[in-house]
Amino acid sequence: MSKQINVALIGNPNTGKTSVFNALTGLNQKVGNYPGITVEKKEGICKLPRGVKAHIIDLPGTYSLNASSLDENVVIELLLNKNDKDFPDIAVVVSDVENLKRNLLLFTQIKDLEIPTVLVINMADRMNYKGISLDIPYLEKHLETKIALVSTRKNQGVDHLKDLIANYKELSVNPCIDASEIDAEYFDNLKKAFPNQLLYKLWLVITQDVNFGKTDRKEIDAIAGFKTKSESELKRLQQRETIKRYQFINNVLKKGQTIDASQAKDLRAKLDRVLTHKVWGYVIFFIILLTIFQAIYDWSSVPMDFIDSVFASLSEWTNDKLPSGAFTNLLADGIIPGLGGIVIFIPQIAFLFLFIAVLEESGYMSRVVFLMDRVMRRFGLSGKSVVPLISGTACAIPAIMATRNIESWKERLITILVTPFTTCSARLPVYLIIIALVIPDGRFLGLSFQALTLMLLYLIGFGTAVVSAYILNKILKIKSKSFFVVEMPNYKLPLIKNVALTVVEKTKAFVFGAGKIILAISIVLWFLASYGPGEDFNNAENIVKAEYASQNLSEDELHQHIASYKLEHSFIGITGRAIEPAIRPLGYDWKIGIAIVSSFAAREVFVGTLATIYSVGSDEEETIKNRMAGEVNPILGGPLFNFASGISLLLFYAFAMQCMSTLAIVKKETNSWKWPMWQLTIMSAFAYIVALIAFQVLK
Amino acid sequence: MNTIIQNILAFTVLAFAIRFLVLKFVWKPKKKTAKACGGTDGCGCH
């Protein structure tokens, strides 16, 4: 068996650790040009020269080993615990060539833990552009390490890095600085109390609440003859340590790094002045949003219509060509329409992810976070809550996990509770189909009403999240606010490869993740819609024929009435009619009621459910849109999906907590069922009330 | 004969669908190790 070594990838946020991880392992973990993408460690395997295998662990970004949030704790707890199975044989500290000074603070701390350490200077392709030159041999000598100059964008330096990792035993483990110099007497006492422990490790344990192995802060306090210092004294010592480290770093960089500002071609400052301007910043962001939603509609209508008609033809073909029977009906009326209900949205979902990926890759997303921080502060939250809220546009689950970098528990809790209001991609299919049915074609200043409605729904989602945060802030009385420092990454031309990977992976996750649930639910729904109890269902044909005997109906019309009668008396019809009184005031019929109940598993299921129910209840193979447009309100008459019921449904889905996976992740992150249950109750009740008011006012 | 085969196929598919939904939402078997999360894997995000 070949030898396997543990390699920890560590570095400041947004230095490209995950890009280095992907380059080493050949994996495609998500990367982005804004901080806070990685909140948990990720693992992969890299084959090194001489048959050595490396177990690469990509850790969340941290500015130093002085942890203040959960994601930073992940790094420190691993580095302090030699008994951890992932304890690194070698640490690879990833730094960004433009922020070397700040990045080296973490490097020196890790070196002082006497772990073999390699320094990766990433984004080396920007050195010329920024007028930076480095004396690598000098830096290697004075930092007592080996340096790999890497550009993951241009795939340069990765092989050299692999060689350095393979030869990790040759690396020096000498510390960069002697931390005990900050208070010699104190460190002497510490050494006497724990003669076998590494001093710097003890110092880290004393200065923060992290656990490692069997040694923790309380144990150190309890040792007889050793008195630790007060919090404020420890803080002062920490500051002294930081100053000492920067003195060391400055001395090294004075000769090891040259920056010729005259060669730097820097548009960044100029762009930032406009893009983060207190007026123009918001105007530009608003215009970008409008462009995105308009493009989503304009570009995807043709492929969507094509997919819709393909699925309708496929259903028809299945019915015509396969022998008649239950399985054929299940395929034609259950599985194919159900799947069509998700596949139809691939173009729009892909375009949405394309735009998000471009914004992230270009570095603009960090500017949006900065802009939003100004808004959030007025509502009592810091900008740290903005990252989860913005990532919530893709999916609430990773967004809720991203709250781990919020230090204040109450602030984190509020962010977790309000994030599901952000419009996630699962809402998109519901929005798109309802908007297409109830919002008229037409344009205002060149923008279609439909695109404007979609954008409005996104803004309503974000606005509700912010207002809810404000209310929760008052109720929960946040005293401790976490500070917010956002790193403004450089503007970059998005790499086509990264953008394409993000779009493909996210669309795949959307289609296959939701697709499996929709497929399973479609199958169950087909059975419930195709079978029923009692005489009404079993003798449907005779009952309908007798009922319409006096009318001269064509064969097709009679079949249509029979299918409709059977559906109403099927298991699903009976269930649907039982819940109908509760949803009728909102303008919905029992079929929509069933779709709402089944979409509690995942919002996207809504369209697939309706497609299956309508398919069973009809003899004609039509597109989903046409089936929905043709539905008649059984009580009020006229189209079921009209402006009033459509708006009511849109608002219901904007506010309701229709996602079991989100509830599960909230339970995991808050370690209690209390919060997800509150979230479910309040969001559902609010959604019901708003949808009710909307329908009653607009009908 | 055809009807019987069609019914067997349909109900087998139903059994698989119910099993999948139960495992997904009602009873989740414990995973041995937590691997990468937060990126493209979706972490349980459908």
UniProtKB/TrEMBL annotation, chain A:
The chain crosses the membrane at residues 279-297, 335-359, 413-439, 451-472, 509-529, 635-656, 676-698. It is found in: Cell inner membrane; Cell membrane. It is a multi-pass membrane protein. PROSITE patterns: G_FEOB. InterPro entries: Fe2_transport_prot-B, Fe2_transport_prot_B_C, FeoB_GTPase, G_FEOB_dom, Gate_dom, GTP-bd, P-loop_NTPase. Residues 4-171 form the FeoB-type G domain. It holds the Pfam family FeoB_C. Keywords: Cell membrane, GTP-binding, Ion transport, Iron, Iron transport, Membrane, Nucleotide-binding, Transmembrane, Transmembrane helix, Transport. Probable transporter of a GTP-driven Fe(2+) uptake system. NCBIfam families: feoB. Belongs to the TRAFAC class TrmE-Era-EngA-EngB-Septin-like GTPase superfamily. FeoB GTPase (TC 9.A.8) family. This is Ferrous iron transport protein B. The lineage of its organism: Bacteria, Pseudomonadati, Bacteroidota, Flavobacteriia, Flavobacteriales.
From TrEMBL, chain B:
It comes from the Bacteria. The chain crosses the membrane at residues 6-27. Keywords: Membrane, Transmembrane, Transmembrane helix. This is FeoB-associated Cys-rich membrane protein. It comes from Hwangdonia seohaensis. The lineage of its organism: Bacteria, Pseudomonadati, Bacteroidota, Flavobacteriia, Flavobacteriales.
